[in-house]
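WARN no homologs supplied; continuing
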Amino acid sequence: MPTSSDARRRPTVVVADDSALMRRVLADVLGGGDQDDGEFRVVATARDGFDAIRKVHQHKPDVVTLDLEMPQLDGLGAIGYIMSESPRPIVVVSAHAGPGTATAIRALELGAVEIVAKPPPPPEGFGHPRAALEALAPQLIAAVRRALAADVSHVKVLARPPAAVVHPPELALRGRAVLAVGVAASTGGPRALADVVPRLPIGRGAAILIVQHMPPKFTRSLAERLDSMSRVRVVEADDGAPIVADTAYVAPGDYHMRVRPAPDGPVIALDQSAPLWGVRPAADPLFRSIAEVYSARGIGVVLTGMGRDGAGGLRAIHDAGGTGLAQDRETAVIPGMPVAAVQAGGVDAVLPLGQIADRVAAELARRRVPDR
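OK structure emitted
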């Protein structure tokens, strides 16, 4: 059994969910159950958003895990209160299908830093729901670890969703991209992407290729959300799709994304080869393929995140004559990935988040687009 001093050293967590079973399973996974020997100490559980806010003020936990569909006050409302009154890292534990995915993306805009997908309940007679819930333990523990490393003071809340952008019909008729911009992001990335992607220009002959570390099923909602905010079209990537100018492609969860040459121009290639740096999709395969296919007409951007994904691939883009950009420490929720990119030698400029889109636009403008 842990001593009281051991318990004090363990990071503290408040678990909020309207399901009593879910609260118990999450508390057991994080806290070690009756043995109380887990990596974290669950100091309280909450059954709705108002209860979560009370428990956060009472216990001042290091991290909050939060369901989104709760009575009285839902998860989005609770995030707004917590991030304005008592900011701390929030891990969303959300349904992985239907409208829950879109709500989870909005939660990240409001200040949550990680998403963990709830598994679907097993069909009746095919196992106990608890077993399915316990299967999410590795993802949940990893997400809470990443959340503990996050500096939420660097998260600027999008308090109101921006007005939807209506894409001109001619965007669907754009030709093949002759320039490529690769973007890598992890913890804090959806909020950073919401700052960068809507400000990227059109009419430069460029495609944007995005790797955001995120569970399967959520990347489509991320693409739809960014599409509604941006001048460029944003889609979840499909295998074999032509890489078209003025379009951004989000790698689907659980698939690596690369560009590969084809007779009529580069296309998207998706695969489920082994995870790299513990993640799939990973940015390094994408960046290396951009270096091979687009060489000096490639630009790589490494945004906030833990670890070193993207560092080697950004160096490959740089060595091929392209440009490497990285987010600075001061604006990154977790600076690990951009710092690793700098250390690998592939970064031409380190910039605050608010300056990255402008620098990408300038890099695209200075590259001559050949007649097509």
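The chain is about 35% helix and 20% strand.
OK
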